[in-house]
Amino acid sequence: MTRTFLGMPASALQRSFPSNAAKAVRDSQLRFNLRKATHTIRDKRASVVGELPDWEELRQAGKAIKDHTLRNLDRYLVQLEEAVTAAGGHVHWARDADEANRIVAGLVKATGETEVVKVKSMATQEIGLNEALAAEGVTAYETDLAELIVQLGDDWPSHILVPAIHRNRAEIREIFQERMGEWGRPAPEGLTDEPRALAEAARLHLRERFLSTKVAISGANFMIAETGTLVVLESEGNGRMCLTLPRTLISVVGIEKLLPSWRDLEVFLQLLPRSSTGERMNPYTSTWTGAAEGQEFHLVLLDNGRTHVLADEVGRQALRCIRCSACLNVCPVYERAGGHAYGSVYPGPIGAILTPQLRGLDSELDRSLPYASSLCGACYEVCPVAIDIPQVLVDLRAKARHPRAERLGMAAAGWIFNRPERLARAQRAGGRLRRFVPKRLPGPMSAWTDTRDIPDIPRESFRGWWDRTGGGDR
Amino acid sequence: MNSRDLILARVRGAVAGAPDVEVPRAYRGVTGDATGGATPAGGDRLIDLLAERLRDYRAIVHVVPEAEIASVVEEALTRRKTGRLVVPDGLPPAWLEREPRDREPYDTVGDDPELSAADLDGVDGVITGCAVAIAETGTIVLDAGHGQGRRALTLLPDYHLCVVGAGQIVAGVPDAVARLSPERPLTWISGPSATSDIELNRVEGVHGPRTLEVVIAR
Ligand code: SF4
Predict the structure, then answer these.
(1) Which domain holds residue A435?
(2) pLDDT (tens digit, 9 = 90+) per residue, A235-287?
(3) What CATH number did the domain enclosing A36 receive?
(4) Which of A7, A312, B30, B215 could form a disulfide with A345 if both were Cys (CB 3.0 to 4.6 A apart)?
(5) Looking at the domain assignment, is residue A59 inside a domain?
């Protein structure tokens, strides 16, 4: 399999998670922003989840609906295709990022337009659609406030739900003042760093564009096989603008976003908003079926490594993910390392299990991701579809090739532990040589002692002591 | 092999032999607890809950007897100094009835023939009914039906005034999903447009209407 593209430059794959993270933890502004943000959302989530007496039942239903869908994904995909087509939409299938980008670029060019507006979507970030469209002479404008900040700042998203979580208000003001003019209507004179003023600047900057752009590109949170309905949850109204006003709508959606029936929404429209923004309901949810209100509608179904994940008995549960980001907000590692260290559009605990499965364990970065966790289990506890992230991490650790020094060490340990005489001899040698053990190990083994102290080696092993004293009697 | 067949074949290969799963639905489902059918006490409880939850999202809420809808609507429009108001097809005319002696405080605009996006952007507000309202989450659902109009009508004007009838209020999300039709384009609205993208500070009003005012008829 050629490496699946996940929306990050190849250079990002050459550094491991620990070296990316080491850089991030030195950035005290970033750590302050992240801590404040993740703790705020985490508390809000806990309080609205606590309001529902049947949260655990909803969670179990959500998990089972997703598992059942994945088990019968072929059947439901075909049913969805029929329903969307019957409602006047067009369905396209894309095996990888390249094919999806080609399909979308072709559809945009067929309209004769050179500009599109976009609703925040993980799938289009994953395939690097904006860059692919730019290469074809089409400019894609992000319309979600956080995505706009990321796009104008020539930056990478660092959180699923709040992609500009690593920027504070002063930085955002600076980005708006310096860059808005290059992309369209410049920032107003005398722009302050009040969140209200910044949001207003974004409203003005994008208003013209919404009214005049003829093509929009979106993702979707859910697709209903039974009815062919797509569902988008959002807060700002930029989603409604993109879904409603343009003449042509193109939605790029991962094949795992499917739900069998309309009724299943009663579960997920409770699980998702409470888990993601910590609200009882997000400000706007739009649903549409096929060509709504005379629009031209195209659905691009994206594989891009998902069927590969589906084939793994342990790892396939990652496909239940509804991208709520609750696991990011409770993760002690994410809180300190930030989203960029994960080197893909999917950061945090879900990224640590999804990215290496989608992309394979070929790069240094992807082999290090399953270790980007203390296995504390907080992610599993908050996950609205009960993905056992620690279980998948441990499974991936077993699959990832370990560094050479560690492999040699483990092989040697295995050889010694295998026979009691060898262990006894090694322990005696250790006891005699204990004075010569350095505080830090040399060469490649230093990676181990950089973060730990070498334990003191006792003069005598327990077995040796027992033999000598007869269990303390002598 | 074309990509459709390839993806479907990959899926079949990936899940072959995997066990299927029963879906447990032990959560609170459809309650039938709607203001229309239930006891008056239950109805009042849902109305109060809806009002409280809407206010939590900083919507302006009035709970009034049905006979007073028109006067509350007129008061709201006067307070906002609304000049031009979009009125979708099928809106009950009674909601906009004014005392004959009153000065005409605003103009109404219909959507037939369809207003352009630029026209809609130029009006001051829109008044609609709704299809369903969910008490537990403080949500109003529009289905582009009578008295609601197409989706853009409640999107471009900066002010949305929505009238909710007592019989349209349901207890929870499952009740709403059961009542709604997937064939219609739906817009679920919970408070005015908002963002928390800047340091997680909630700011109301980005691209959608910055003010949502709701009149609930008892
Ligand atoms: S893994 Fe679970 S908690 Fe994390 S984003 Fe996905 S659904 Fe949410």
Answers:
(1) 408-469
(2) 999 999 999 999 999 999 999 999 999 999 999 999 999 999 999 999 999 99
(3) 3.40.50.10420
(4) A7
(5) yes
> What residues of A are in contact with residue B15 (Cβ under 8 Å)?
70-74, 310
Q: Over the stretch A310-360, which tens digit does the pLDDT of each residue have? A: 999 999 999 999 999 999 999 999 998 888 888 888 999 999 999 999 988
Among protein residues, the one with the nearest Cα to ligand 1's atom 8 is: A324
The residue behind tokens 């279980």 is A391
Same structural domain for residues A147 and A25? yes
Residue A325, ligand 1, Cβ within 6 A: yes
Answer whether B24 sits within 8 Å of A64, measured CB to CB. Answer: yes
By Cβ distance, the residue of A93, A287, A316 closest to B182 is A287
A43 lies in some domain: yes
- Which pLDDT value is given to residue B38? 44
**Nearest CB neighbour to B8, from listed A74, A144, A267:** A74
pLDDT tens track for B11-67: 999 999 999 999 999 999 988 654 444 444 567 899 999 999 999 999 999 999 999
**The CATH number fitting domain B34-217, selected from 3.40.50.10420, 3.40.50.850, 3.20.20.480, 3.30.300.30:** 3.40.50.10420
The answer to whether B185 contacts A292, with C-beta atoms less than 8 Å apart, is: yes
Q: What are phi and psi of A154, to 5 degrees?
A: 55, 50
Last residue of a domain, one of A264, A290, A306: A306
Residue spans per domain, chain B: 34-217
B174 contacts on A by Cβ (under 8 Å): 266
User: Nearest by CB to B3, which of A58, A64, A94?
Assistant: A94
pLDDT at residue A11 tops 70? no
Under the banding of pLDDT at 50, 70 and 90, the label for residue A467 is confident
Does the ipTM surpass 0.90? yes
The residues that bridge with A118 in the sheet, in sequence order, are A142, A217
- Judged by average pLDDT, the poorest of A68-77, A326-335, B30-39, B148-157 is B30-39
Mean pLDDT of B83-109: 85
A346 lies in some domain: no
Per-residue pLDDT reduced to its tens digit, A117-175: 999 899 999 999 999 999 999 999 999 888 899 899 888 888 888 888 888 888 999 99
Distance from CA of A26 to the nearest CA of B (A): 20
Counting ligand 1 atoms within 8 A of each CB, the residue from A49, A316, A323, A393 with the most, and so the one to mutate, is A323
Nearest by Cα to B93 from B50, B150, B146: B146
Among A400-404, B98-102, B164-168, B214-218, whose mean pLDDT is lowest? B98-102
Residue at A232 is within a domain: yes
Tally of domains in chain A: 2
Size of the A and B interface in Cβ pairs below 8 Å: 229
As to burial, measured by CB atoms within 10 angstroms (0-12 exposed, 13-18 middle, 19+ buried), residue A412 is exposed
Contact A283 B12 (CB under 8 A): no
Q: Which residue has the tokens 């994904």?
A: A73
pLDDT value at position B74?
93
- Select the residue from A118, A307, A319, A320 to test the B interface by mutation, using most B Cβ atoms within 10 A: A307
| Nearest CB to A266 within list B26, B173, B187 | B173
- Tell whether A296 and A418 lie within a shared domain: no
How does DSSP classify residue A341? G
- DSSP, residue by residue, chain B: --HHHHHHHHHHHHHTTPPP------S-------TTTS-HHHHHHHHHHHHHHHHHTT-EEEEE-GGGHHHHHHHHHHHTT--EEE--TT--GGGG---TTS----EEE--SSPPPHHHHHHSSEEEE--SEEETTTTEEEE-S-TTT--GGGGTSSSEEEEEE-GGGEESSHHHHHHHS-TTS-EEEE-SS-EE-TTTT--EE-SSS-SEEEEEEE-
Output the CA A132–ligand 1 centroid distance in Å: 28
Per the prediction, chain A carries an average pLDDT of: 90
Same domain, A302 and A447: no
